[in-house]
Structure formats: C-alpha cells, structure tokens
Amino acid sequence: MHKATAGAGSNIAFVKYWGVRHGGADPMVPLNPSISMTLEEVRTTTTVAFEPGAAGDLFTLNGSPATADELRRVGRVLDAVRRRAGMRRFARVVSSNNFPTAAGIASSASGFAALALAAARAAGLPYEPPDLVEPALLGSGSACRSLYGGYVLWQPPAAGRRESTVREVAPREHWPLADLVVIVSRKEKRVKSSEGHLLARTSPFLRARLAQVEGRIARVERAIFERDLRALGEVMEADALSMHAVMMTSTPALLYWQPATVAVIEKVQALRAADALACYFTIDAGPNVHVITAPETARAAEQEIRRIEGVEQILSCSTGEAPRLLQEHLF
Ligand code: PMV
Question: How many angstroms separate the alpha carbon of residue 285 from the centre of ligand 1?
Fold first, then answer.
C-alpha cells in the first residue's frame, strides 16, 4: 500500500489563532488556543503515492504544478511522514479543491489535513487524528483542527512540551449550524497568514487580546454544549474584531477589509436588531465574511446578504464530518 486518497473539510474558527511562538521547520506552536467548526462543503481531495525511482516530490494543485512555496510546505509534511516510516521514496501528490481556487477562502486547512491523512496511510503509518497533528502542523496551523469533525479545540503545548493537543469538543450531530461564506473579493491576499502570524508580536494590542482569549474559549465551549447561538455569536464577533485590531496595529499594518466587508457586518447587525434573524459574523485573514446562523434561517439570511453591493458569491456550508479515506484516487 503506497498510494492513498483522503478528503477533508475546511474549518471556521470562532476563537481565532493569530500569532506563532515558532513555526517553519518545527510544527507550528500558536500563541493562543483556538476553537473551530469543521465545514462539510468546502473540501480538498488529495492522493499521495510514494513512487520508487522518483527523483523528487511532485505536487499538482487544481490541475497546475504547485508554486515553490506550496511545494516546500508539502515537502515538510512528506519529510515528517517519511522520517516516521523510515522510508526514502519521493511522492507524487495531486490535490483538488471543490471550491473556486481564487475564491479567497482558505484552502490550507482542508489541504494539509487531507495531505496528512493520505500520506500517513500511503506510508503504512497509523492514521488516527492524534497521529496526524504533528505532520498537519508542518503545513498550516488551522489544518490540525480540520483533522476532526464537528467542533474542535486546539491547545498549544503545555510549558516545556512540544506537542499541541487537538480534540473534538462536540460532534456534528450535537449542533448542526450553517456558515454562509460571503465572498466580496477573489483577489489573492497581499500578506499570507503564514507571514501575518509572525507580525502579531509587533502589535501593542496583542497582549490585551491574549488576556481575553482563555475566557472566550470557555464561553464558546459552554455555548456549544448549550447550543446557545446568541452566546456563541457574541463571543465570536468580539474575537474576530480583536484579531483584526491586532492585524491593523501590526508593523506593517494589515488591513484585510474591503468596503463590502463592512457592509456585510452592518447587514448582519441590522438583521439581528430587527429581531428577524439570529446571525453573527466572523472574518479570517481576508476580506470575506462568514455568517453563522441556524440551518433554518440560512436561506433567509442568504437572500438578504446577496443584495449587498460588492457581494460576489455566497457559499452555503454546514457543520462537517471528520476527514475520510476515499477509494477513488485522483491518478
Ligand atoms: O492556519 P493558517 O496559517 O492559515 O492561519 C489561520 C488564521 C485564521 O484563519 C485567521 C484564524 C484561524 O484560527 O483559523
């Protein structure tokens, strides 16, 4: 067995990860814990084959050869897998996202979760989620949360330890929610999150944000247990704004928002104020807005938001399952 295929969903964080203690050649160590919901509809499928005689790793993403940076990150994950398996063979990796490539939504989470699972399986290694945390963290931080379905908590290593802890807080069935991914720009962002994480420490607001994060994690966990959308939404919005405050006050300053980003925020607030629709926003390292609401109110919210000037597309997503191995390979 030297070939395997896996599919994984992206995720949206309710309490965000922003800032690394260290990363790069070592698995990413975040400055703060984060908690997310895995998404079902925005997915990556990846096939890995360790091939005898290959002269180097090859990586094709959505039908095109990967960039040098993408290949370097994929290579780090493959090296970790090869090290564990005591194997020297290079790999051919083919990966495909089921959402528009240039849609401006993060594919690194689903991408590196699928890669970690497929590579471990292809190398004959154990492939339960805890076995995959370290390899996934060599690709991207948020990828470790996409190793589980439902609601997922990522805790940085305890003092003196190297390993992060990732666990499912509640399964998908406990509380299915909707996430409307509101695309207001498809442009590639100027500063990638991997670079942004290194700038977080330059913000004088980072300390204030970190002081609040533990409390927010506890409140979000409670809101999930109690299926309390209002409690979840209030914390989620406050956390997204505090992360963007850190971004905006970094050196250089990172301003990811577009006019339509603010228009969507205002619409979400207005819908709530009219007591018509319980929906709440969060925003990652980009201009697009995620609107979290109950499945029953998703359609109505989508219709309202679609009318806003500058909204290009809305991807309707729901709480997702854990990654899975697939029988059909991409090559
Ligand atoms: O895992 P990365 O390097 O793509 O960083 C993700 C950062 C945010 O999306 C902004 C926050 C998060 O926790 O997902």
Answer: 7
| Residue 52 CA, ligand 1 centroid: distance in Å | 35
Task: Give the dihedral sign, CA 160/164/170/171.
Answer: negative
Pocket test for ligand 1, best of 12, 14, 18 (most atoms within 8 A of CB): 18
Cα–Cα distance for residue pair 94/119, rounded to 1 Å: 11
pLDDT tens sequence across 54-71: 899 999 999 999 999 899
Angle CA 166–96–7, to nearest 5:
40
Count CB neighbours of 275 within 10 A. Answer: 7
3-state SS string over 138-171? CCCCHHHHHHCCCEEEEECCCCCCCCCEEEEEEC
C-alpha–C-alpha distance, residues 171 and 152, integer Å: 9
CA of 145 to the centre of ligand 1 (A): 10
Measured in angstroms, how far is the CA atom of residue 16 from the centroid of ligand 1?
Answer: 7
Answer whether 0.90 is exceeded by the pTM: yes
Is 284's C-beta closer than 6 angstroms to any atom of ligand 1? yes
